[in-house]
Predict the structure.
Amino acid sequence: MRKIGFGTYVVIIFPIIAAIWLLYPTYRAWELEKEKEQLAQDSAALAQFEKEYGETLRELKLRRLKLGLDLRGGMYITLEVDVIRLLEESAQRDAIDEVFQEVMNKTRQEAEQSDEAVLDIFLRYFDQIARPKGRTLFSYFEFGDVRDLTEEDIIDRLEQNIEDAVDQAMEIIRQRIDKYGVSEPSIQKQGGRRIVLELPGVTNEKEVRQLLQTTARLEFHLLRQNVEIVQAFAQVDELLRQEQRAKESADTGSPRATVTAQNPIDTTGQQADTAKADTTVQSDTTNPYAGLSDEEAREAYRRDHPFTSLFVTYYIDRENNQYVPIDYVRKNFPEGEYYFEILESNIPQFEAILQRPDVMRIIGTDYMIALAAKPRAETEGSPQRVYPFYVLKAEPELTGEVIVDARATFDPTTNSPIVLMTMNADGAERWARITGANVGKRIAIVLDGRVYSAPVVQTRITGGRSQITGLASIQEARLLEIVLKAGALKAPVKIIEERVVGPSLGEDSIQRGLTASLLALAIVVVFMVVYYAFAGVIADLMLFLNLLLVLAMLAAFGGTLTLPGIAGLILTIGMAVDANILIYERAREELYKGRTIRAAIDEGFRKALSAILDSNITTFISGLILFYFGSGPIQGFAVTLMIGIVMTLFTVLVVGRSIFQILLARGVQTINLGQPKIAAAK
Amino acid sequence: MEFFRNPKIDFLGKRHFFKYVSFVLIAVGILGVAILGIPFGIDFTGGTEIALRLSKPLDIAQVRAVVAQTEFARSEIKTYGAPNQFLIRVQQTKGAGEIAAKLKEAFQKQFPDLTVTVLKADVIGPKVGKELRTDALIALILAVLAILLYVSLRFEFAFALGAVLALVHDVIIAFTWAVIAGQLGLVSLEVNQSTIAAVLTVLGFSINDTVVIFDRIRENREIHRGIPLVELMNMSINQTLSRTVNTSLTTFLVLLVLTLFGGAVLQGFAFIMLLGIVIGTYSSIYVASALTIWYIERRKGQKKVVAATAT
């Protein structure tokens, strides 16, 4: 008898555990969402649910198997950089004349039909039409900083602009979609000039279109994070507190739970930052929460400071170079500079309060509050991301049109990443005045209402060429470059493909896809048992494991299940069954030759191997090609098919084989392959 | 259970007859498509397409009448999977959602008690359509070439040639006959990206079947040296017959279920594969094997002729 190693069992058990472990988040998220749906009517219960499971659900959603747009409904949009408009925007506005416009018109006409790159078409017509009239590229294009550009340099720059426009558009769109509140959007770059957007659950095409096509504004604002604004924040607290008290006295006797639920500034789930604020409750005034337990004190603080408990306020202590957390229990705040941070989950509530007219009156029209575009780097990967927010002077010092160029590079002396920014003459003059008056202060670079950077002005900058330093990485510098270019260039993009899948079609497809798959699976399962008896049962078990593993792999690699994906899954059923049939048929043949069951099964696996490998590899090759050349739905099919093939080979050749080995090693004398009895007699 | 016990069917003896069958299938297919045309989806042509579901079935004429009153009068209309679902292809190419909303409104004005659901609304730029079409064609050709390469590496060239020609044969027949069935209204079928995926899957099936038989031939040639090629092939086909039938049957049933119950989106897709599995099974015997015999005999014949002239 052959010895069966521990490894043989592991081979069987490990994939089962792995599949369950990888699919559990999907199941749990589904369960929680169902529960949440049932609570939809009851806001108090919903708040409770959010407090208890909100975080878990968000985390689970990241690891669950995602459904494609065709199954859940939503919008699919492909955007392309409008190279023609970009060329027009890149040209010096006052240099544009009839000759240039004629070239552009010809280019536009041809670009609609041709596959040729628009820039090439443009250059061809430029040579044909503009050059004979004495124009060169220099006549129209000027890129500030470099003095002696060649024509090739200009073409390179235009190419670069086209590429940057994609990144820029992506950045703006990402922020806007974020604000719009789509859950799990996907924004991807496709090739050099395209952006593919997938917005599950969104069907209001008009709004999204507007969102994508309004141009972004780049502005420079002075920071005003002073004591005045902190006092204003304290007043907002006071306002909300009074309102709440009025409400409480109006319906006395009502249980507390409903009061918090109706309260627009519900403060569930904010332990993290109030805990921070709590550590500084020992302040100039006597502690009003003395004698309460930590938990109660926190609760009371939150109730008394419905607005300021949403975020954390730091006082910047310049002498000790420290950020000191500040609470709002105190009545007098120190003069100086402040710094604010907010948890991502508190942002909607924070913004809702700021939009109230009475709150806006307190803050005043001189101030503007803008969130940072990116969370603080350390918190980026965590589910609880922390965003700084900035209080700015509402009136911009300068708008982005004056920027001619921006470039991310390294400082030759320190080798740290920097961004070079060039302004036109008009901008340079104003910039010198602004920087001169604000040395030592910070100026925020704001695109589309989000702060990308808030550098400190070191000196008065004349000549319009600035250098932004202190960036953490070259990636950060690149992002800033792209953002600054938005001033010079309003990334013109156009929608070239747009698909809206209604939620009912998605549901319908799931239903039908699922029913058809289950029915198909049932037929196969029954057939295998009827034809191959006990061996058929093993094949069926492997088939289930196979399907589980394919889904688990999809979830693990962040793939999405689409309708063609379901078709791929069904095909996998076919391939998996075929592999088993090949083996069993071969084993039967060996049995008929009078071999023992052990020899027959060994031979079955051995002889069927080349046929199984060859047929699966060829199918895998077509899957691979499909993946590279297909798009969207076809890729979904190809991915499922390829994973399916790998899992088929694994389950049938490794797991299935191990099961037979264990059975035989345990002294099983016969394994019913479903062959008729006469076979043995022969 | 067992369907076949030691079958000894002379498959290849009838290969000359089936040569004509294949020719007829291909000719009718190509002719049919040439006459009826290929119903390209907007994936490949570009355009705008709206699918609506009505709460109760309407006559296509009624639907036409409603659409005719809107600004989208010049639209093509057909049913979409079910009698109460319609696909409307409009000329306008801006704003799928808005067009869908306008159409919905038009229906509700005409039939106030009707609920209209927008199933999908797609706008595809003409350039994108052209690109998708090119990409699909490239994918198809590359897949065939890659398979040819792989099979030549694993088997000899004569076999690879037979396998790949069988592949082309299957793809042509499955595609053209599916298109004909679609144009005659037997299934809802539109040639789009999913169709290409289906055709590539047919490719997979077809090669799969052929490879299993060829694998057996390769094995048998080592064991039974010196028997004539036709006999060798017949023996191999017979030996793998159980497997061929079982696999084809299960896959056939799976695809049949998908064709019947898969809904508007999956139906065309599944139907092509269904045809593919039938044709693929047939062709691995009568096209792949027969062509390989033909090629090897022809080469031998030439050698004999060369030998004869040399003496």
Observations:
- The mean pLDDT of chain B is 85.
- The first strand of chain B starts at residue 47 and ends at 54.
- Chain B touches chain A through 71 residues (CB under 8 Å).
- The CA atoms of residues 46 and 296 of chain B lie 47 Å apart.
